[in-house]
Every structure is written in C-alpha cells, then in structure tokens.
Write a structure and sequence with these properties.
The complex is a heterodimer of chains A (about 120) and B (about 230). By secondary structure, chain A is an alpha/beta fold. Chain A contains four helices and five strands, in the order E-H-E-H-E-H-E-E-H. In chain A, strand 1, helix 1 and strand 2 form a beta-alpha-beta unit. Classes of the chains: A alpha/beta (about 120), B alpha+beta (about 230).
C-alpha cells in the first residue's frame, strides 16, 4: 500500500495512476496522519503546500513515532528544494511537480514498495 | 517595479504554477494514443511547460531583489543550444525556421545560468511570436571586445521608438505593451532586461525596416582566456 498526500485531487490521481500497486489518496495531512494509526504504508508521496497542516508538519509527526519514522517518503512539490538534504525526515527523494514524469513516480514505487 | 506589485505578481505566479503543473501531468498521463493524439498530447505538455517557465521567471524576480542568484562562468553556446532545443518545436509548429550561427568559440561569460537561459528564451519566444508563418528568425552569437553578444533577429513588426529608446539605456522600467507589435504585453522583454541588469549584462534593440533584433552582451569570464587556448 502506498499513500499519496496532495490537496490537488487531479494531481493526486495522476500520481496514483503512475503507481503500479494499491494506493490511498488523502487531501490533507490530518486524514493521512489518522490513517497511519490503522495502516502503515510501504511508502508515501507527499506534497508540501497542503491546506491545513503542511507537509513539514506531517514529516515531523512521522519521525516522532518509531513505527512511522522509517517509512520512505518522496516529496512532490512545486517548491524549490534543490541542494537540500531532508533525509533526517525519512525523505528518500524529491520530485519537482513541474518537471516530473510518470516514470519518476513509478521508479520510486518499484524501489520502495512491494507489488 | 514597486515591491507591493512584485509581491502581488509573486503570489499570482505561485497560484498559477500548481494548476499548470497539474495540466502538464494530466497530459503526460494519456497513453494508448494514435499519432494525432500523441502529437496533441506532446503539444499540451510543451505549452504547459512553456507557461510554467514563464511563471518561474516571475517568481525569480523576488529572488533577484534578494540577490540569490550566483554569478559564475557560464558557457554561452551550451545555454543557447539548450534554449534552441527547447523552443525548436514551437518554431516548427508555427511554420518558421530558426537559424543559429556561432561566430565565436564556446567561451565562458560571467552570468547566472538560469537567468541567462531565461533572457535568451524570452528573446527567442518573442521572435517566434512575431515572425510570420514561412519566415525565419536568427540567433547569432559573436564576440565584441571583452563581451560575448547574443543577437536574436526577427522579421516581425518594427519596434516602437519609445521602447527602442528605453532599450538603448540598457533596461526597461516596467512591462510595456510594445506598440506596433500587436498582442504584446512586453513582459518577456521586461524580464529579459531585468535579469540582464542583474548580471551586469547589456541589453539592447536594433530597429530594422523589416523587424527587430534584440541582443544581450555579457562580460567574458577571465577563465575564458585560459579556456579559449584549449578549445578550437
């Protein structure tokens, strides 16, 4: 199972379409955080500029629990993160929304999730 | 431009970037298309990427004021090649030709790579916008004393004298519709002028009877002389 957290529903569906396994989509960080207590995903694709608590709030929440701190996270954002190392948050990759292609998403999903 | 105005533009640009990125992603999601469908899909991706690039240019304006762009030795020819590659589809779609001539070696100039890309990109975009179907635009890279000059010649309407005067000064104050050039907001030119000024580069325009040349002159990097000795 892979989680996609993005408040842009159309973008979230595009991301989900590129993932060759089961996906749950969340439009905000709170819903995604609540879902984590029921089910731990193999990885998460996370937008940063979310309505309500933002992606960094979500990341901080993730690293504060032992069972979620090791879940690989790929940030998908229009913000410029070039040169930044976010590995301490469990971030294994950063994709620029305006440049990524579906194959980028597929590659991460294949690397970090079982099918 | 006033800071308040720039901030407004910045907010608008950020707001626009999301939907544009989504549109591009939607277009990329299509598969199993026939040849014509594939062509349209590619065009949708290209158009949205062009819009994203323009929005990115607007967001760079604030970073410009904060001095966040590093100046470094940049290979002009490499940048021009990249811009040409990125815009070649547009010239093709518009039924126009783009001629590129390099009259000097791939020397280094003092610039910021991203900003230089945007300057050349905006000039070329301008050229394809105004060139008529079947006509051509030309990009010439040459050396002028201690500078490297990139000229972009179009065969569209003549540039107004007012804008030409502003360009003579080396920059333009604000986006102004380029009179005698219908359908223009002058934003691309304004951005190119602003970015050039940041790089201590000189921009200008030459009025021809049958069109306009816009140019940017960049200072050669001191590393260029060492570099030139080894490349032919």
């Amino acid at each position: 199972m892979i989680f996609v957290v993005d408040d842009d529903k159309v973008m979230a569906k595009c991301i989900a379409r590129a993932i060759p396994s089961d996906v749950r989509i969340f439009g905000n960080a709170i819903d995604a955080m609540e879902a984590l207590s029921e089910e731990l995903p193999e990885m998460i694709f996370l937008d940063i500029m979310l309505s309500g608590p933002d992606g960094f709030t979500f990341l901080n929440e993730m690293i504060s629990y032992p069972d979620t701190m090791k879940i690989p996270i790929v940030i998908i954002s229009s913000l410029d993160f070039s040169g930044q190392d976010l590995s301490e948050y469990g971030v294994v990759g950063i994709l620029d929304k305006s440049k990524m292609v579906p194959e980028d998403i597929e590659r991460y999903a294949e690397k970090y999730a079982r099918h | 431009m006033e800071n308040v105005e720039v901030d407004g533009i910045l907010v608008a640009a950020h707001e626009l970037k999301g939907p544009l990125a989504t549109l591009r992603q939607l277009a990329l999601s299509f598969d199993g298309m026939d040849t014509e469908g594939e062509r349209i899909r590619e065009e949708m991706v290209n158009v949205s990427e062009r819009a994203i690039r323009q929005v990115n240019d607007l967001t760079k304006m604030r970073r410009l004021e904060d001095g966040l762009f590093e100046m470094e030795p940049v290979a002009v020819r490499t940048v021009c090649d990249e811009v040409t590659r990125e815009l070649s589809y547009l010239f093709r779609e518009n039924g126009q030709k783009l001629k590129v001539r390099y009259k000097c070696r791939n020397g280094l100039v003092v610039a910021n790579r991203d900003l230089l890309f945007s300057v050349v990109y905006n000039f070329l975009l301008n050229a394809t916008h105004y060139a008529e179907e079947g006509s051509e635009a030309e990009m010439v890279v040459s050396e002028v004393k201690d500078r490297v000059r990139v000229d972009i010649r179009d065969y569209g309407p003549v540039l107004s004298k007012d804008i030409w005067k502003e360009m003579r000064r080396g920059w333009i104050e604000k986006p102004t519709s380029i009179a005698m050039r219908p359908g223009s907001s002058g934003l691309g030119l304004f951005i190119a002028s602003k970015f050039s000024r940041y790089m201590n580069a000189k921009v200008g325009a030459i009025r021809h009877r049958d069109g306009t040349s816009f140019y940017v002159e960049l200072l050669k990097s001191k590393q260029a002389s060492l570099f030139d000795d080894f490349c032919g």
